[in-house]
Amino acid sequence: MSLASILSADAIDSAIKDCQAPDSFCHRKFFQLCGLTKKSPQDVKKVFGILDNDGSGFVEEEELKFFLQRFSPGARVLSDKETKEFLCAADDDSDGRIGAEEFQAMVLS
């Protein structure tokens, strides 16, 4: 399954273009622009499964760095600052990784 089967290619492009500049990534704005905030909880969990590159059931810091590239292969890598801010925004139990429920809560809240 690909992200393009859940989100429109135009919306993904718009979201990627909005955060091209270094340190300009804002997860809330990105989720809105790509249309993820309007999706069902089931679709959000499907997106989480795609982002969980190693299939561990969690998205770890190393996977978050490449978050934008999961949406568009030519996108930039998130900076360390952006990655840490993104992780902190979702990691409700402070275990250093984002679980499916944490991701869903972050996207749909």
Automatic annotation (TrEMBL):
It comes from the Eukaryota. The keyword Cytoplasm does not apply. Ca(2+) 1 binds at residues 52, 54, 56, 58, 63. InterPro entries: EF-hand-dom_pair, EF_Hand_1_Ca_BS, EF_hand_dom, Parvalbumin. CDD domains: EFh_parvalbumin_beta. Belongs to the parvalbumin family. This is Parvalbumin.
